[in-house]
Amino acid sequence: MTMDTASADKSVALAAAATVAEGEEQVVDPAASENYFNRELSHLQFNYRVLQQALDPSHPLINRLIFCCIFSSNMDEFFEIRVAGLRQQMKYGRESIGPDGMLPTQLLNEISQVAHQYISEQYDILNNVLIPEMQKENVSFVRRREWTPAQAEWVRTYFEEEILPVVNPIGLDPSHPFPRLVNKSLNFIVELDGKDAFGRETGMAIVPAPKSLPRLVRLPDEVCDGGDNLVFLSSMIHAHADELFPGMEIKGCYQFRLTRNADLVLEDDLEDLASALRGELLSRRFGDGVRLEVADNCPDELTHFLLREFGLSERDLYQVHGPVNLTRLMAVGSLVDRPELEYPGFSPAVPKKIRNNEDIFGVIRQKPVLLHHPYESFTPVIDLLRQAAKDPNVLAIRQTLYRTGSNSEIVEALMDAARRGKEVTAVIELRARFDEAENLELASRLQEAGVVVVYGVVGFKTHAKMIMIVRREEGRLKRYVHLGTGNYHAGNARLYTDYSLMSCDDALGDDVNKLFQQLTGMGKALKIKKLYHAPFTLHKRLIEMIDREAGYGKKGRIIFKINALTEPEVMLALYRASQAGVRVDLIIRGICCLRPGVPGLSENIHVRSIIGRFLEHTRVYCFGNKGKPEIYGSSADGMVRNLINRVEVAFPVEDKDLAERMMSDLNAYLSDNCQSWELQSDGSYIQNQPGEGEERFVAQQALLEGLTNK
After folding, report:
1. Active-site position among 463, 489, 539, 606
2. Which pTM was predicted?
3. pLDDT digits over 242-265, tens only?
4. Is 463 a catalytic residue?
5. Architecture of the domain spanning 532-709
């Protein structure tokens, strides 16, 4: 499926680089604004590529619906953080301009235009493609007008027993002002006629739907004629709104949802980060409004009333033909037992040398271990900590934690180690976005178990993924380390692609130890031998290695696999490399501000995005180095926040076999001709297709089959 995105991307594409008359030398300024795409518009394009998966028949039907929901979730965060940030800039007169040169005012208008188009297409896909196809598979979303008498009676009983007791309608009058509604909550605005018991004629009410109520409910089989039948909570509330306002006439009931600013702003001179964060979390649910979603049948006067209440304009209004909270449709997978409509399950592989040896320390001593998740299991990482907790020769464990998930086995292992008398230190990043409350709770649990908890460095999020285990062996202390590209989250390790490296290399161990010293103590930056780390050496070293490849000219080679590229100096260095003749392949899942294919500037740079079953999350930097390739795994993307404002780590993969394996993985991504999208010089993305006589090749499927079958 090759998609013509010219019209969709017209507002995204920037003006072509200036050319001069035939016969004259072309001059290109690498720093000129026309050579960069806007960060926010590129972000929107990534979300759109996710939405396009809902149309791809190579994905199972329920998973196509889930892609549609993921698009909604991504858009929610985009408005909560990115759009909210632009509005804050304008509100306080702190407008900043990126390399593309767009002003926030202009950008908000562009975002509105593109987002409206994408969201309209999303509902078209849902209503005219996904729901009809699910209906053919006997999975039905039963509308009110389609309820049989038996179904209507069941819904009435459900409403009275499960919904009515927890819903709190709010009439609007001088003593009942418009309520503060929670961010992204489902609500209804109701038009009323008549007088209530006190003789009031309010004319209007708000009905918030508690988040505890499921947005989808499965109808019991006994009131259906077969298949899987689901009813929206909104349909049930619409059908029985009159029971919320007895004796009043319901003239109309319309669903809406407000998206608020959910970013947290903390000062750098805090005395107590945890206490300050707890205070900020309370305000997140009620930040300034940034987007209003309203059912498209809502009368204009009610819609404008809501816009006025939230201080929003027509630009911020999204009238949708369907549920306003599509993210909650992800529940379909748990409500419908139809395995043939979902991805087939798989068992992540455990390398044979680990599977056949209970002593994981002994395995690592023989040779470093590289795991590629989710194709290979995350269990060996957990087992490493479990063995360390029980091993009497282990003296200390140190670990960074960014996202772990609830009921984390990693956390249980750390607490077990502390209870057994090990010296355990956890560097927890409290400001991991949308996981702040969970991390505060995690910190308390660890402290109660005897773990020393450190909150990283104020002003620099600790995003590095590191474990260090100190073990006594043959009369000396030896360090074992785990370095990763992803979080210590077992759930994510089944959905995100990431690398784990486990090693007992002395220099790596010494480097990791010094990094933990910097995080937990005070002092000058220590000299590091093998690792590159932000905010100190990683940014500078990346540019130096890019420029080194540029010095090799056409013999140079660069491959980056990252999630985003926005850092201006890195992009300038890549432009220099391209101008020198270096072949540059960038596998960038999401945001890319670099403009490929510009004559005289970036014609040697190729950018592709892989979108598939798994979320591409690995960060890898590969440099040709005149036939002696250097390859690094990293926690850092190519963004200012990663390379300048965070604690990040890039680690070399020096073992020849492991480096060749990572190179093979990169080549698989570069060979994908089905789930890869090529960034064009005009800013559009085109999905790759097998050429005539060429076999289909899906990188993720090839890796899944190749690794899990071993």
Report:
1. 463
2. 0.90
3. 999 888 889 999 999 999 988 765
4. yes
5. 2-Layer Sandwich (3.30)
